[in-house]
Structures are given as structure tokens and as C-alpha cells.
Write a structure and sequence with these properties.
3 domains, 12 helices, globular
């Protein structure tokens, strides 16, 4: 079976690994980052140590965010989700990390569960439903994310619902515009101009986003 070619980020990580001492803290974290999709718990644990002990400073980085983006090639938001998901498992599901037979939940699903538990609008029944979905291991992350959005919309304001609908329409219009560009010239409707619609949706989304920010403030 052919193996997929490494991405540019993976190549850069591999090059840096060759310059580091195997077994060192920096090497261990970077190696875990390279494989984090299959072992996110290890990376979450290590990143928690890197941030808590400010190891990134010893390695020449001004901030944790700078280290994440430039060395291990992940966004700060992803690093936050990884460390918080690890902390959640460590506190509430410690045996799960030791059980080699049970699959680990997606760290993104744990992030959604944490959001639901922190949001007083989510009922205890909804929180319990999400918790079961996350830890039973029978439902994929996209399905859990869809259910989370449905629950969130149950108690959303009219403006929030409208914003969600506009964003969905904008995403669909952009995808259609991109797809039309790949059609042969002879296809009727290929030259359909979606720019005015996309522009109007962008303005509507920006306006509603601003209004929601003012409400929060």
C-alpha cells in the first residue's frame, strides 16, 4: 500500500527532530506533535507541562502561542482544546486513559462537552446525552457536533438563529461558486454570477455578528 506523502509541516517537524537530542523534553514534545492525531492524549499532557513550566521560553520562544505555531505547527486554539481535554479526562475519566481496549474520544468532542457543561442554557439531560455520546465511543465527532448545534439552537435567540442560517447560506453559496468554476464552458448556468448574493450575505453576517458582540458586552 502506498503511503501518503508527508505534508510541509510534517517535513519541517522531521527536519527539526533531526537536530534535537532524542529523549530530551523538546524532542519528546515535538515527536508527540508529529503523531498527535493518533495519540492526542500524550500531546495534551506534554503541552500542559510545556505551558505550566514555560519550557517554550527555554527553547527560544516568546510565548506558548509562538511555540505552538512555529515549532509543532498547530494553532493556539487547538493547543488549548488538547490541554483542556486532557485535563478533563485526568479529572473525570482517569481510568479511560489507562484502558488500552477502549477507544479514546475525539478531543474536539470533549471540548463541546465542556462547553455544554459551562453553559447554563444546556439542561442536565442534554449534558448527560452529550457525555454518553462522547464516551461510549459509538458516535463520530461530526455527529456529536451536529447534535451539539441542535441543542444550542433550542435556546438560541431569533437573532442567533438568523445568524446561523445566514452563515450556512454563505458557506453554501461559496461552495457553489467554487464548484461552478470547474465545470466545462458548455454547461448552461456555468457563468451564474453569485457575487452579489455572497456580498449581501457577508454584509448580513457581519452586521449580526456585530450586534451579538454588543449584546454580550
Amino acid at each position: 500500500m502506498d503511503t501518503a506523502a508527508p505534508t510541509r509541516a510534517e517535513q519541517q517537524i522531521e527536519q527539526l527532530l533531526e537536530q534535537l537530542e532524542p529523549g530530551s523534553d523538546r524532542y519528546t514534545v515535538l515527536s508527540s506533535a508529529k503523531n498527535f492525531k493518533s495519540s492526542w492524549v500524550d500531546l495534551g499532557r506534554l503541552l500542559k507541562q510545556v505551558r505550566g513550566s514555560r519550557l517554550y521560553s527555554d527553547w527560544g520562544y516568546d510565548s506558548f502561542e509562538d511555540y505552538c505555531s512555529r515549532e509543532i505547527r498547530i494553532r493556539r486554539q487547538t493547543a488549548d482544546k488538547l490541554t483542556m481535554a486532557f485535563h478533563y479526562l485526568e479529572k473525570k475519566q482517569p481510568t479511560l486513559m489507562e484502558d488500552k481496549l477502549r477507544p479514546l474520544p475525539d478531543y474536539r468532542s470533549i471540548d463541546l462537552l465542556q462547553q455544554a457543561e459551562a453553559d447554563t442554557n444546556f439542561t442536565s439531560e442534554q449534558q448527560q446525552e452529550l457525555e454518553q455520546a462522547v464516551f461510549e465511543g459509538k458516535i463520530s465527532h461530526p455527529t456529536i457536533a451536529k447534535r451539539f448545534r441542535e441543542m444550542a439552537m433550542d435556546h438560541a435567540t431569533m437573532e442567533q438563529r438568523q445568524l446561523s442560517e445566514y452563515k450556512s447560506a454563505l458557506s453554501a453559496a461559496r461552495r457553489l461558486q467554487s464548484a461552478l468554476g470547474f465545470l466545462p464552458d458548455e454547461f448552461e448556468g456555468r457563468q451564474l454570477d453569485l457575487a452579489p448574493l455572497i456580498s449581501s450575505l457577508e454584509q448580513a453576517v457581519e452586521l449580526l455578528d456585530t450586534e451579538q458582540e454588543l449584546i454580550v458586552e
